[in-house]
Amino acid sequence: MSALTASWSKSKTTQRRLRDALAYTLLAVGFVWFIFPLFWVIMGSLKTFEDFNQIPLRIFPSALYFGNYPSAWTSVPFGRYFINTAIIVSLSVVGELISASIVGFGFSRLKFWGRNFLFMVLLSTMMLPFWVVIIPRFLLYRDIGWVGTWLPLIVPSYFANPVYVFLMRQFFMTLPPELDDAAKIDGCNELGIFWRILLPLTKPVLATIAIFSFINVWTDFVKQVIYLSQDSTYTVAIGLAFLRWQIAQGDPVPGLLMAATVFTSLPMIAIFFIGQKYMVRGIALTGRTGT
Amino acid sequence: MQSPRTVASNISWARLRPHIVGWAFISPWLVSFSFLMVYPFIASFVLSFTRYQLIGEAEFIGFENIQRMLFEDERVTDALRVTFTYVLLTVPAGTAISILVAILLNQHVRGIPFFRTSFYMPSVIGGVGLALLWTTILAKNGPINAALGLVGIEGPNWLFETAWALPSLALKAIATAGAAMLIILAALQGVPQHLYEAVELDGGGEWAKFWHVTLPQISPAIFYNVIVTTIGVMQSFVEAFIMTNGGPGTSTLFYGLYLYRQAFEFYRMGYASALAWMIFLIILALTIVNFRIARYWVYYEGEE
User: Is residue A291 part of a domain?
Assistant: First the structure.
C-alpha cells in the first residue's frame, strides 16, 4: 500500500519535472526570440565596418569598438533632437496627467446629465482611425499658424486623451464613495474632494499614465513628421529616420545605425525598468498601452 | 423670510449645480472631442468632395475623388491588397503566438518575472527605433540569413525582394506584440481556480482544462485583442515608411503610407480625405463583422 502511494507520488514528481523542463525549454526559446534582436543591435553597435563583412557572420565584435557612437551622435544633430524631444515629452506628460485626472474624476465621482452617454462616446472615439481626422487637424493647425511648431504635439495633451481618462476612471471607481461623503460633510466642494482627498490616492495610476504617455509621445513619429518642418525643431525619431535614409542612399555603415538605435532606445528601456510594475498594471486594467 | 423668487432660484441652482460642475470637470475632453474629433471627422467627409492643394480655396468636384479612388487609381487597389494581406499575416498568427506565450508565462516555475520582463521589453522601444532594429535583423548578411545558412539555406534579401518584403514586416509585427501578450496574461491570471478544480473532479485532464475553462474564460480578452490589433494594423505606417519605403514596387505599400503620400507629399488634401473615409468605413465594417463572429466564440459570464 505504502509502496503504491510512493510510486504514485514519484510519478507525479517526474511528471512535474518533465513539465518544468518543457516550460524552461520553451521559455529559453522565447527568450532568444524576443531578446536576440536587441542583443544583436548592441553587439553590432560595437563592431567595425570590417566585422560586418566577415564570413561566417560574427555575433561578437572582433574587438570592442566604440567609434560608432560618437559618429552616430554627430552625423545627425542628435544632441539638439534629444533636448527638443525631452521638452515636447515632458510638457505633454504634464498635460496628460492634469487633464486625464480632472476628466476621469468627472466621469467617475460626479453625477450629471448625459454622463453615461458621453462616456460611451468617449470609449468609441478610442476606436476612431487616426487617418480619418489627421487632414482637417493639419489644416486647422495650419490656419492658426501652429504647423512647424511643437504646439500640435503638445497642446492636445492638455485636453484629455480618452485612453488615459478611461484608465483614471477605472481607478477612481475602485475608491470607496464614503471618502467623498466624508469630505462633503467637512465642507469640501468637488474641487477640494478631487484635489485634496482623491488625487493623492491615485499616484500609482498617475505613474502609469506618465510612463505610457512618455513612451507614446517619444515614439510618435507620424505626428512629428507631419507637423515639423525645420531642422531646429526636429525630434529623435526624425533624426533616426534621417540616418536611415542617408544609409539607404549609399553610406553603408551598419554599426553607426545600430549605435544610434541603441542610444535612442535607452530612454524607453530606462523608463521601462523604472516603471515596469505600473505599465503591467495599466495594461491589465485597460487592455491598452495608451495609443 | 425669503421671497418666493429667491427660493425658486435657489432650488434651481441647487438642482443645476451638480450638472454644471460635472460638465465643467469633463470640459477639457469636450473641447478636444469637438475640435479634434467631431469637427475633423465631418470636415474630412466634406473635403472628400473637393480638390484642395493647400493653396487657394477648396474646389467642389462632386464624386470625382470617389470615382478615381474606386475605379481609376490602381495604387488604391494595390494598397488595399497589401494592407489586407498584412492583416491576415499578422492578426491570426500574432494572436495565436500571444496566447501561447501568455500561457507559457503563466506557468508556476521560478524566474517567471525575469522572462516576462525580457519578452515584453523590446516592444517598448517602439516606432522608428524598433523598425531600424528589425531592418538590421532582416539584412541580407544579417543573423536570420546566417542561421538559415547553418542549415544550408541561402536566405533572400528579405526587405528588398517583392515576395518577401511584406512577410518580413509581418514577422517584425508578430515578434514585437508584447502588449497583446500581457493583456492575455492578465486574463489568464483572472481565471477562477475553482473552475479547474471542477474539471479535475470530473476526471478531465490538461487538455479538457484548456479547452473547457481557459479558452472560454480568456476569449473576451482574445476578442478585444483581435479588434484592437486589426484596427491598429489596418493603419500601419512607420514599418513601411522606415523599413521598405513601400517597396519593392508596391509590395509593402500600406494604405496608411499611400494616404500619407497623397496628403503630405503631393498635398492632395481632398483626395487623401476620400481615402481616409474609405479606410474608416472599411475598418468600421471589419469591426462589425468581428463583433458578429464574436457571438459564436466569445464567452461572457452570465450568458447561456
Answer: no
Q: Is A139 on the interface with B (CB under 8 A)?
A: yes
Whether A37 sits inside 8 A of B280 (CB atoms) is no
Asked if residue A52 belongs to a domain, the reply is no
Place of cell 494592407: B83
Q: A28 and A85 share a domain? A: no
Domains: count for chain A? 2
Whether residue A119 is contained in a domain is answered as yes
Examine the domain organization and report whether A140 and A19 are in the same domain: no
Q: What is the DSSP string of A222-265?
A: HHHHHH--SGGG--HHHHHHHHHHHHHTT---HHHHHHHHHHHH
Q: Which of A27, A120, A141 to mutate to test the interface with B (most CBs of B within 10 A)?
A: A27
Domain limits for position A8? 2-45
Q: Tell me whether residues A112 and B146 touch, CB distance under 8 A.
A: no
Q: Hey, is A77 helix, strand or coil? A: coil
Are B41 and A215 within 8 A, CB to CB? Answer: no
pTM: 0.89
Q: What gap in Å lies between CA A111 and CA B33, rounded to an integer?
A: 20
**ipTM for the whole complex:** 0.89
Tens-binned pLDDT, residue by residue, of chain A (291 aa): 455 555 555 677 888 888 888 889 999 999 988 889 999 999 999 988 888 777 777 788 888 889 889 988 988 899 999 999 999 999 999 999 999 999 999 999 999 999 999 999 999 998 899 999 999 999 999 999 999 999 999 999 999 999 999 999 988 988 888 888 888 888 888 888 999 889 999 988 899 899 999 999 999 999 999 999 999 999 999 999 988 887 766 555 788 889 999 999 999 999 988 888 888 777 777 766 555
Q: Tell me whether residue A58 is in a domain.
A: no
| Structural domains for chain B | 4-47 (no CATH), 69-297 (1.10.3720.10)
Distance from CA of A220 to the nearest CA of B (A): 7
If 0-12 CB within 10 Å is exposed, 13-18 middle and 19+ buried, where does residue B24 land? middle
Note whether B234 contacts A162, CB cutoff 8 Å. Answer: no
CB contact under 8 A, A27 and B109: yes
- A252 with A199: CB under 8 angstroms? no
H/E stretch holding B250: none
